[in-house]
Amino acid sequence: MAPIPITIVTGFLGSGKTTLILNLIPQLPHTYKIALLKNEFGDVAIDSQLASSAAISGVQELLNGCICCNLVGQLGDALESLLKDVGPDRIIIETSGSAFPATLAMEINRLGRETGNYVLDGVVVVIDVENWKGYEDTSYTAKMQQKYTDLIVFNKWESVDERRYDDCLDRVGDLELQIANVKSDKGRVDQSLLLGLDSALAKDGDSVNGGYAKDKPMHEHSEDHETEVEVLSVNLVSEGDKPKSVNLDSLETFLLSAPKDEVYRIKAMVSASHPMASSSGDVDESAGSLPGIAMYILNWAFGRWTFTYSDATLPAPIGVASSTTAAAVSNTHETILRMTVVLARGEASKWKSRLEKRGMIEQEDEGGFLMVSRVI
Question: Three-class SS string for the chain?
Fold first, then answer.
């Protein structure tokens, strides 16, 4: 059996990685099996829920850590599971926003040599042109994501002036490397450009490692990106026997008030009595014919969000703040919101306190238990 090609899609938080993948699927033959290995911060697999509804043959999730360091040992098992359960024609690995692609590429190369089952096809980095200036000066990982790649996709350039786009090109040029780049069409890039890249990182892993060592010792990488972002996990559990809804007015106020330089991403599964408008004003009416309360996926990045119907169900909350809360949240109560909030460094304590004071995340009527904990 020929080895399965693996494409790595990386890029900073909110750059549009999942959108790029979802726009790739319709371009492929119906018989072509794509498997997705998704690495996310927190314990809410939002993007995996979106991907599962997009004709992807199989999805594996590595949550609450970085696939290039503290979760790298799980990579082999996850790939093997996809190989056995799906038998894909290609595997796409979508990393968390702080993953460093070179170390991940080296691990794929190692697994490929040992098993003969995999080959690295390419590393694609997505850059959010609109918001890149907000993080590129402070994020060492963002710079490294650009440097160790086969293709750079400039995304979200349509809403900015040409000077902002030129600034991004200049910063990439500062790396003094010949890296192919392309503008997306609202998150879409032709499949012929994304696949079959014949990755340079697959050909010469030693030079990748050596190049990285010149920039910074390997062991320091974990410390670097662990301090670049901080992550909160938020759970809202309802009271009473009847299904409950999240207060969407309060939730929208929270989304509108979140500063882009403090809050990078908000992802959530939300139980709601009606759909909330996305930041563009669009409303997903998919659940319009369903009686009562439905589940929605909230995906917020740098001041913009979508609110999409989902047929998924929310599991019980992970982790309880105190024994008192644990006693209060019985098995008869239902989780009506599970959220991951990814913040700039130094912001977690402040935003944890704000969220716990209520008024931002609450049940539609009075009641409910709100639990906020720091993950990273």
Answer: CCCEEEEEEEECCCCCHHHHHHHHHHHCCCCCCEEEEEEECCCCCHHHHHHHCCCCCEEEEEECCCCCCCCHHHHHHHHHHHHHHCCCCEEEEECCCCCCHHHHHHHHHHHHHHHCCEEEEEEEEEEECCCHHHCCCCCHHHHHHHHCCCEEEEECCCCCCHHHHHHHHHHHHCCCCCCEEEECCCCCCCHHHHCCCCCHHHHCHHHHHHHHHHHCCCCHHHHHHHHHEEEEEEEEECCCCCCCCECHHHHHHHHHHCCCCCEEEEEEEEEECCCCCCCCCCCCCCCCCCCCCEEEEEEEECCEEEEEEECCCCCCCCCCCCHHHHHHCCCCCCEEEEEEEEEECCCHHHHHHHHHCCCCCCECCCCCEEEEEECC
